[in-house]
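Late entry, written up from scratch paper. The run itself happened at the end of the previous shift, but nothing got recorded in the book at the time, so transcribing now.
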Amino acid sequence: MVCLGNICRSPMAQGILDSKIKEQGLNVSVDSVGTASYHIDQNPDPRATAKAEEHDIDISLYRGRQISTADFDEFDYIYVMDNYNYQDVLNITRDEEDKKKVKMILNKIFPDQDMSVPDPYYGGEEGFENVYQLLDKACDKIIEELTYEI
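Output as recorded:
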Protein backbone atom coordinates (compact mmCIF):
# COMPACT_ATOMS: atom_id res chain seq x y z
CA MET A 1 0.00 0.00 0.00
CA VAL A 2 1.51 3.32 -1.09
CA CYS A 3 0.71 6.97 -0.34
CA LEU A 4 2.86 10.07 -0.01
CA GLY A 5 3.99 10.11 3.62
CA ASN A 6 2.90 6.67 4.86
CA ILE A 7 1.01 8.07 7.85
CA CYS A 8 -2.66 8.22 6.76
CA ARG A 9 -4.00 6.33 3.75
CA SER A 10 -1.46 3.56 3.26
CA PRO A 11 -1.26 2.46 6.91
CA MET A 12 -5.07 2.47 7.07
CA ALA A 13 -5.16 0.33 3.91
CA GLN A 14 -2.53 -2.01 5.36
CA GLY A 15 -4.49 -2.41 8.58
CA ILE A 16 -7.79 -2.99 6.80
CA LEU A 17 -6.36 -5.57 4.41
CA ASP A 18 -4.35 -7.25 7.14
CA SER A 19 -7.47 -7.65 9.30
CA LYS A 20 -9.39 -9.18 6.38
CA ILE A 21 -6.49 -11.55 5.64
CA LYS A 22 -6.51 -12.73 9.26
CA GLU A 23 -10.30 -13.21 9.18
CA GLN A 24 -9.92 -15.42 6.10
CA GLY A 25 -6.91 -17.29 7.50
CA LEU A 26 -4.80 -16.44 4.47
CA ASN A 27 -1.02 -16.53 4.42
CA VAL A 28 -0.42 -13.16 2.76
CA SER A 29 1.96 -10.34 3.70
CA VAL A 30 0.89 -6.70 3.59
CA ASP A 31 2.97 -3.60 4.19
CA SER A 32 2.67 0.13 3.59
CA VAL A 33 5.13 2.72 2.36
CA GLY A 34 5.34 6.32 1.26
CA THR A 35 6.94 7.75 -1.83
CA ALA A 36 8.41 10.61 0.23
CA SER A 37 10.81 10.39 3.15
CA TYR A 38 8.97 12.86 5.41
CA HIS A 39 7.79 10.37 8.03
CA ILE A 40 10.32 7.53 8.08
CA ASP A 41 10.11 5.64 11.40
CA GLN A 42 7.13 7.73 12.56
CA ASN A 43 3.82 6.33 13.75
CA PRO A 44 0.69 6.84 11.66
CA ASP A 45 -1.22 10.09 12.07
CA PRO A 46 -3.22 9.89 15.33
CA ARG A 47 -6.43 10.52 13.40
CA ALA A 48 -5.75 7.53 11.13
CA THR A 49 -4.95 5.41 14.18
CA ALA A 50 -8.17 6.53 15.89
CA LYS A 51 -10.28 5.83 12.79
CA ALA A 52 -8.79 2.35 12.42
CA GLU A 53 -9.33 1.71 16.14
CA GLU A 54 -13.03 2.62 15.73
CA HIS A 55 -13.19 -0.40 13.42
CA ASP A 56 -11.20 -2.67 15.77
CA ILE A 57 -7.99 -2.37 13.74
CA ASP A 58 -4.72 -1.49 15.49
CA ILE A 59 -2.22 0.37 13.32
CA SER A 60 -0.51 2.13 16.23
CA LEU A 61 2.69 0.09 15.96
CA TYR A 62 3.22 0.68 12.24
CA ARG A 63 6.22 2.80 11.30
CA GLY A 64 6.60 4.91 8.20
CA ARG A 65 9.07 3.87 5.56
CA GLN A 66 9.86 4.86 1.99
CA ILE A 67 9.28 2.59 -1.00
CA SER A 68 12.36 1.00 -2.57
CA THR A 69 13.04 -1.24 -5.53
CA ALA A 70 13.30 -4.17 -3.08
CA ASP A 71 9.52 -3.90 -2.61
CA PHE A 72 9.07 -5.11 -6.18
CA ASP A 73 10.91 -8.31 -5.25
CA GLU A 74 8.98 -8.75 -2.00
CA PHE A 75 5.40 -8.10 -3.16
CA ASP A 76 3.18 -9.30 -6.00
CA TYR A 77 0.98 -6.20 -5.97
CA ILE A 78 1.78 -2.56 -5.22
CA TYR A 79 -1.48 -0.69 -4.57
CA VAL A 80 -1.19 3.09 -4.87
CA MET A 81 -3.60 5.66 -3.42
CA ASP A 82 -3.43 8.41 -6.05
CA ASN A 83 -2.16 9.39 -9.49
CA TYR A 84 0.74 11.49 -8.21
CA ASN A 85 2.18 8.61 -6.19
CA TYR A 86 1.36 6.17 -8.99
CA GLN A 87 3.72 8.11 -11.27
CA ASP A 88 6.37 8.28 -8.55
CA VAL A 89 6.21 4.51 -8.08
CA LEU A 90 6.41 3.90 -11.83
CA ASN A 91 9.52 6.11 -11.90
CA ILE A 92 11.40 3.67 -9.68
CA THR A 93 10.38 0.50 -11.50
CA ARG A 94 13.22 -1.42 -13.08
CA ASP A 95 11.36 -3.19 -15.87
CA GLU A 96 7.97 -4.18 -17.29
CA GLU A 97 7.49 -6.87 -14.62
CA ASP A 98 7.75 -4.22 -11.90
CA LYS A 99 5.32 -1.95 -13.76
CA LYS A 100 2.71 -4.71 -14.00
CA LYS A 101 2.59 -4.90 -10.19
CA VAL A 102 1.61 -1.24 -9.73
CA LYS A 103 -2.15 -0.71 -9.44
CA MET A 104 -4.47 2.13 -8.43
CA ILE A 105 -6.33 0.73 -5.42
CA LEU A 106 -9.69 2.34 -6.22
CA ASN A 107 -9.75 0.60 -9.60
CA LYS A 108 -10.85 -2.38 -7.51
CA ILE A 109 -14.23 -0.72 -6.92
CA PHE A 110 -14.25 1.81 -9.81
CA PRO A 111 -12.66 -0.21 -12.64
CA ASP A 112 -10.43 1.68 -15.08
CA GLN A 113 -11.34 5.09 -13.62
CA ASP A 114 -7.94 5.72 -11.97
CA MET A 115 -9.65 7.56 -9.11
CA SER A 116 -7.55 8.78 -6.20
CA VAL A 117 -8.15 8.07 -2.54
CA PRO A 118 -8.47 11.61 -1.16
CA ASP A 119 -5.73 12.62 1.25
CA PRO A 120 -7.44 13.20 4.61
CA TYR A 121 -4.41 14.87 6.21
CA TYR A 122 -5.78 18.42 5.95
CA GLY A 123 -9.42 17.41 6.28
CA GLY A 124 -11.56 16.76 9.28
CA GLU A 125 -13.03 13.63 10.83
CA GLU A 126 -15.32 13.03 7.86
CA GLY A 127 -12.28 12.83 5.56
CA PHE A 128 -10.81 9.94 7.54
CA GLU A 129 -14.17 8.13 7.62
CA ASN A 130 -14.58 8.57 3.86
CA VAL A 131 -11.07 7.21 3.26
CA TYR A 132 -11.73 4.29 5.58
CA GLN A 133 -14.93 3.36 3.75
CA LEU A 134 -13.29 3.57 0.30
CA LEU A 135 -10.33 1.47 1.39
CA ASP A 136 -12.56 -1.06 3.15
CA LYS A 137 -14.53 -1.64 -0.06
CA ALA A 138 -11.37 -1.87 -2.17
CA CYS A 139 -9.82 -4.33 0.29
CA ASP A 140 -12.97 -6.47 0.13
CA LYS A 141 -12.36 -6.82 -3.62
CA ILE A 142 -8.69 -7.61 -3.08
CA ILE A 143 -9.66 -10.35 -0.61
CA GLU A 144 -12.16 -11.78 -3.11
CA GLU A 145 -9.39 -11.96 -5.71
CA LEU A 146 -6.86 -13.43 -3.28
CA THR A 147 -9.23 -16.18 -2.14
CA TYR A 148 -9.99 -16.95 -5.79
CA GLU A 149 -6.24 -17.15 -6.62
CA ILE A 150 -5.46 -19.40 -3.67
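The helical segments are 9-24, 46-54, 70-74, 83-91, 96-101, 125-149.
(Scratch paper discarded after transcription.)
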